[in-house]
Design a protein that fits this description.
GMP Synthetase, Chain A, domain 3; Luciferase, domain 3; 558 residues; Rossmann fold; 16 helices; 8-stranded mixed β-sheet; alpha/beta; 5-stranded mixed β-sheet
């Protein structure tokens, strides 16, 4: 089959295609898990286990509560939390009630949150109290009428009281806020317990979630992921991982570490939904940046799967407490979100005996599109081969397929996991979809004769910080609002820790403008990973004759 040269690289037992019609909806997939694995642990969080049966009961209650608010089928509900047990409960509740999940980064500033709530038209939000002040600052400008408020210790019983006290009073992680009419998570569950729940009939082409991604214009766009898109990607990931997961001893529950945030599509699909499908346990890590706490949590578990980004693999492998964890049961380490560095992969293999298997994907592809075989023993430096039922090709500027030439061009992807389009943006959808259904990624890559793909550059000027997209236009638009700024430009510069970092170059209007003022302004308006690491002042910016800023020149000049 010459149109898929990569099939020869598939390990034994991995099928060329999967059947995404096994389930009508994600709800059907989840309810099967709730039935089949009711007594098993679904989530482990801060020493407390929550079973599939409990997740089932709580999500049904929350679904009944949400329906009782008068929301209509297809209405959007935003979720803004770190990795806490309330997140998977809320996801299951929103989908069961017939609504659409809008995943929100909890670190957003009021400006970013307002855009996403307005754009999605969300009518309700489930949010952890740590970020309630952010919501307070922008809720009046949005369609949100209903707020469900969670706290870190909601589902931890008596221990939860202590956790909440520490979070609120000792660590001072909950800034003061006022959200009149907000209902506490546990109160919403109590109300939902006595409310009627009507199960809608969901179809594969119904929308499951809006997954926001940066736009080349700087405006974040919602990738519309249908139930069948995410189902397909769960089944593709399961089939791809099977040669490794089949080595888990019989009778042992598959266990995965979830250190990536669940609002990120990688963790949403490859952690939460895949574990639903396999009846696996998910270890929820609320703050992956606290490496000591991550290792302390992991030291109490046996686990088999660890999806992460390069930054996290690197940080853990260099941590003095790394060896307090038993890594010997690890069967698959999946690297995604950003390029895995060869030095990190080498160190990880030395320390765990489990190679990092690098994959590739985007919010628009639910996310996984290609991956290295999980049987590989060494790091390839490529993004592997397309996973089952997925086609990838390399296109030149005119849209011709140049995959066979080995020349670089734009990577394009076709498969059941590719989104239906961007939410209410037919113009933007048209830009990225070819007539024969391929999604153009904006990444420049090559394909070798074996069908392995490699990313060599990016078409867009996007900066990739620890797996998160930063669009220069967005940062520039924000900085340009500063009174003392005449012009500015943003580029990515290499960074040992995060892969790339944001460099901001400014031409002053006000000579008195300082770096400290710029940083303060960025801090107020941009999430942490979008803030510039390097701020540079110049007298002018390099431009083309037409006046377009030459970003490449700014990049090259250190």
């Amino acid at each position: 089959m010459t149109d898929r040269p990569w099939l020869a690289a598939y390990p034994q037992g991995v099928p060329a295609d999967i059947d995404p019609t096994q389930y009508q909806s994600l709800v059907q997939l989840m309810e099967q898990a709730f039935r089949d694995y009711a007594d098993r642990t679904a989530y482990s969080f801060m020493g407390k286990d929550i079973s599939f049966g409990e997740t089932d009961a709580l999500s049904r209650r929350l679904a009944a509560y949400l329906q009782g608010l008068g929301l209509a089928r297809g209405d959007r509900v935003a979720l803004m939390m770190p990795n806490v047990p309330q997140y998977p409960v809320a996801v299951a509740a929103v989908l069961r009630a017939g609504f659409v999940v809008v995943n929100v980064n909890p670190l957003y500033t009021p400006r970013e949150l307002e855009h996403q709530l307005k754009d999605s038209g969300a009518k309700a939000i489930v949010i952890i109290e740590n970020f309630a002040a952010t919501l307070q600052a922008c809720i009046a400008n949005t369609a949100v009428k209903h707020v469900v408020l969670c706290a870190m210790g909601d589902r931890l019983g008596l221990k939860g009281l202590l956790v909440n006290y520490v979070v609120r009073s000792v660590k001072k992680l909950v800034p003061p806020y006022q959200l009149p009419g907000a209902v506490r998570f546990n109160d919403a569950l109590a109300k939902g317990a006595s409310a009627a729940f009507s199960q809608p009939e969901l179809m594969p082409d119904d929308i499951a979630l809006l997954q926001y991604t940066g736009g080349t214009t700087g405006v974040s766009k919602g990738a519309v992921l249908l139930h069948r898109n995410v189902i397909a990607n769960v089944l593709q990931s399961e089939a791809w991982n099977a040669p490794a997961t089949s080595k888990i001893p019989a009778g042992e529950q598959p266990t995965a570490v979830c250190a990536l945030p669940l609002y990120h599509i990688f963790a949403f699909t490859v952690n939460m939904m895949l574990s639903m499908r396999t009846g696996g346990k998910t270890i929820l890590i609320p703050n992956p940046r606290d490496l000591a706490a991550v290792l302390k949590e992991l030291s109490g578990h046996r686990f088999h799967s660890f999806p992460a980004v390069n930054t996290l693999f690197n940080g853990l492998a260099h941590h003095p407490q790394f060896n307090t964890v038993d890594w010997s049961h690890l069967k698959v380490s999946v690297g995604g979100g950003m390029a895995v560095q060869a030095a990190v992969a080498k160190l990880w293999l030395e320390k765990t005996g489990c190679p990092i298997c690098e994959g590739y994907g985007l919010s628009e592809t639910s996310p996984s599109a290609s991956c290295n075989p999980v049987t590989a023993k060494e790091f390839s430096g490529s993004i592997g081969v397309p996973i089952p039922s997925t086609y990838m090709r390399i296109l030149d500027d005119d849209g011709h397929d140049i995959s066979a030439t080995g020349q670089p061009g734009e990577i394009a992807i076709k498969g059941p996991q590719v989104m239906a389009g961007y939410w209410q943006r037919p113009d933007e959808t048209a830009k990225v979809m070819t007539e024969d259904g391929y999604f153009k990624t904006g990444d420049i890559g090559t394909m070798d004769e074996r069908g392995y793909f490699k990313v060599v550059d990016r078409k867009k000027d996007m900066v990739l910080v620890s797996g998160f997209n930063v669009y220069p236009n967005e940062v520039e638009d924000v900085v340009a609002l500063m009174p003392g700024v005449l012009e500015c430009a943003v580029v990515g510069v290499p960074d040992d820790r995060t892969g790339e970092a944001v460099k901001l170059v400014i031409v002053k209007k006000d000579p008195a403008l300082t770096e400290a003022q710029v940083r303060e302004f960025c801090k107020a308006n941009l999430t942490g990973y979008k803030q510039p690491k390097v701020v540079e002042f110049r007298t002018e910016l390099p431009k083309t004759p037409v006046g377009k800023i030459l970003r490449r020149e700014l990049r090259d000049k250190k």
